[in-house]
């Protein structure tokens, strides 16, 4: 039975070493990128967001070392890329208690915010309550936490949701795993879902109705799913590929500089350590 207060994938966190350079790289791929945000001081981080319909992608970087961002700094010491996936929660405090009742040592809730520059001028604040699974709980290297949006209207701003490449949603997070079944089973147990075997030895975990799914797979299977795309720069284990839905595959191809008839995808070197693919959805 799924957790009552964990609804599905809310956003993914792409850890980057140079925030402004990362934002420029994603703009060059046809994404509308939000103005830069700065989180509360105890977070020590800043971000840019790429907003879709019900979910989004976050480019996150360290602005000042703090206890809170120590795990991300350790991640960035090794590589850039998709560090964590966030689930939507309708009540962070209740969600943390729900995990504790299952014997999982949840961290939080933690409250923070960041200023938002509004398109029509002026500034508002985006506020969040989050809780985390234990830092040791990283299925195949993927961190997870849950986010309660206290001010959705200051995050899902309509003018930021339209992209030249037509991107409209997160479809799938593909995680390289030495043991795909074990990685999927661990994630499934942490979010009270089911791991399901699919073709080519991969294992799928659904996150919630209409939200992105997780796919745990080996390197050979990843290569078969993305023919012609270099796997250079991807980790031995960890989140490796992100599949996005687009309303206009031709526009996506033009934005990514992909020739007609080729896969609408780019290697990790162009997307901060993340193989990126767009599909019609």
Q: SSE layout and pairings?
A:
Layout: E1 8-15, H1 19-27, E2 37-38, E3 45-51, E4 56-62, H2 70-78, E5 81-88, H3 92-101, E6 107-117, E7 123-132, E8 143-149, E9 167-176, H4 180-191, E10 195-197, E11 203-206, E12 213-217, H5 219-225, E13 238-246, H6 249-256, E14 265-266, E15 275-280
Parallel strand pairs: 1-4, 5-8, 9-12, 13-15
Antiparallel strand pairs: 1-5, 2-3, 3-4, 6-7, 7-8, 9-13, 10-11, 11-12, 14-15
Describe what this molecule looks like in 3D:
By secondary structure, this protein is an alpha+beta fold. It has helices spanning 19-27, 70-78, 92-101, 180-191, 219-225, 249-256; strands at 8-15, 37-38, 45-51, 56-62, 81-88, 107-117, 123-132, 143-149, 167-176, 195-197, 203-206, 213-217, 238-246, 265-266, 275-280. The protein has two domains: 8-160, 2,3-Dihydroxybiphenyl 1,2-Dioxygenase, domain 1 (Roll), CATH 3.10.180.10; 167-280, 2,3-Dihydroxybiphenyl 1,2-Dioxygenase, domain 1, CATH 3.10.180. It is built from six helices and 15 strands. A hairpin with an 8-residue loop joins strand 14 (265-266) and strand 15. The protein starts with 7 loop residues before the first strand and ends with a strand. The model has no long low-confidence stretch (mean pLDDT 94).
């Amino acid at each position: 039975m799924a957790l009552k207060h964990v609804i599905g994938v809310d956003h993914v966190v792409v850890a980057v070493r140079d925030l402004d350079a990362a934002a420029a790289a994603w703009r060059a791929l046809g994404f509308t990128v939000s103005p830069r945000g700065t989180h509360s001081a105890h977070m020590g981080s800043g971000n840019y967001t790429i907003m879709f319909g019900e979910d989004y992608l976050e480019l996150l970087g360290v602005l000042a070392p703090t206890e809170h961002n120590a795990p991300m700094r350790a991640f960035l010491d090794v590589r850039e890329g998709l560090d964590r996936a966030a689930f939507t929660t309708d009540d962070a405090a209740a969600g943390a208690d729900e995990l504790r009742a299952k014997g999982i040592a949840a961290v939080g809730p933690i409250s923070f915010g960041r200023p938002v520059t509004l398109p029509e001028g002026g500034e508002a604040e985006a506020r969040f309550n989050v809780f985390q699974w234990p830092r040791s709980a990283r299925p195949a290297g993927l961190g997870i936490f849950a986010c309660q949006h206290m001010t959705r209207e200051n995050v899902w701003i309509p003018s930021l949701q339209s992209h030249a490449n037509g991107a409209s949603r997160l479809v799938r997070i593909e995680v390289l795993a030495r043991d795909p079944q074990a990685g999927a089973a661990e994630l499934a147990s942490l979010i009270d879902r089911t791991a399901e075997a699919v073709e080519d030895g991969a294992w799928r975990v659904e996150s919630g109705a209409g939200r992105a799914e997780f796919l745990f797979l080996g390197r050979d299977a990843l290569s078969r799913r993305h023919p012609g795309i270099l796997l250079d720069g991807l980790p031995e284990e960890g989140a490796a590929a992100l599949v996005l839905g687009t309303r206009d595959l031709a526009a996506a191809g033009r934005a990514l500089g992909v020739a007609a008839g080729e896969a609408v995808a780019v290697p990790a070197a162009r997307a901060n350590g993340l193989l990126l693919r767009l599909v019609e959805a």
